[in-house]
Predict the structure.
Amino acid sequence: MTEEALKDLLYKIADDQLILGHRNSEWTGMGPLLEEDIAFSSMAQDKVGQSLAFYNLLHQLGEQDPDTVAFTRNAEQFHNCQLVELPSGEYDFSLIRHFLFDHAEFIRFQMLAECPIEEVAQVAKKLKGEVKYHVMHANTWVKQLSNANEEAHSKMQSALDYALPYALGIFEPSKYENDFIEAGIYAGEKAIETQWKENIHMVLEEAGLKLPDWDTLKPVYGGRYGKHTEYLQPLLSEMSEVFNEDPTADW
Amino acid sequence: MYGGGQVFEPSSTNNELLKDEDPKKLAEFEARIARGEKIEPKDWMPKLYRKQLIRMIEQHAHSEIIGSLPEGTWITRAPGFKRKLALMAKVQDEVGHAQLLYGAAETLGKSREQMIEDLITGKSKYSNIFNYPTFTWADSCFISWLVDAGAIVNQLANARGSYGPYCRALDRICAEESFHLKYGHHCVIHLATGTPKQRQMMQEAVNRWWAPMMHFFGPSDKISTHTEILTKWKVKMATNDECRQQFLDMYVPKIWELGLTIPDENLKKNEETGEWEFTEPDWEEFKRVINGDGPCNKERLAVRRTAEERGAWVRRALAAKTKGDKYVAPMA
């Protein structure tokens, strides 16, 4: 497998984490209750920290330093799926996005923890432990709210219906799929997707939320190849506003 | 983060609330406080003590949650990973402080929901300083370093007070604030010793924030309301002027050391008295702002109100889910 392929994999993971971490941090001071405000902030910190771990791996492979990579690229140079860049919206959407994304991420890190590239495996092993708690948090809240009353149930169902096509975009195949599988890096996006569908199905059933027939859904692809919604560039411009006032300065 | 300048009950209410107290119980209560004992939630306490403490802890909690807004707005713009991660953690701490403090106030019999309701309807106050805007990154650095420093001065004093749950919350809060202070100082050092543009940005922030910072500790003791009984009951542990003097003594030299100037030509330490002298802050402005007419009062409350409204369905759902469950008293 080429280094180019490995970088492609690391970039998409890092970019997903950074953008979702950034979105989750928007709840700071704005949460529906203090406890959730604090929880979203914790997860945001974990995610931004996780992205840093992957940008550091990329730096070791010869890419620029994490600050430059994260704060100076434009939207077309980002490889995150479109799900993570969508505006935070209301709490129902943010929660469902967190649920759908972290279930996928947990499986991804589980697989990468067995990766033959030692540096990647080590990072994945460590981060898997963090994401486990994110998944537990999401499961608890999805079940709790969906079973609480009609209002919450219907909000959660609508948020799920809206988010699912984007969530399938997490698994947009890379052009290096076969290389990863052959080199035993991980079992590939299709395998994560299959496992993910099983895992979320179990929780959603307990939550009383309906999953549509998968065949009727059209995955929103493009993010992995730099095609993004109108929301990513403004997010990046905001993120780099101060940094770019003087990129050579030490902040 | 919280300063002085608390709004206490007027003395007419004090006398009204005190006149029916059992003199024997009151004497025992005061003897306990004089011995340095802590008062706990289930202990007997005068009605006035309860009322003043609720008011004070509630104002403190509100200040934490409103205080998270001017800095929180810079999380999405913090320059670089180190600052972004640190600022997220810092503002999260502030929200956590609000949670701790609402818990401490709840032990005195007022629910969190009621307190938040009183905040967004403008009935309760919060620290005046958060009614000023953070125009630049340097403004957020000023808050992290110096507003938190001021808060520590005030909170360390109050941590020696008489109400157990509040003191314990303050001990935890001060430990976290000391990290905020280091973070803020680090940010300010980088700006003050950085490029000409960074230095200018930092100086402008100091110029903007100096007056609100002097207001932060509350009106001068000469004009502040009578708080004798609160001092006796160890509700108020240091006067506004004492806190302001301590802050100036600790931080003015540090600000000057960085080559920054302070926009008050009369600011100097009188070596004979050991006291800092300065231009008397504009207390009319302080009053105006605390009564709702500051640059950001409306915006801050509107944001908080919107957050409450957007999250209402979540709280309704939780209430539906827990109906019939036993009330769990907050940890304090």
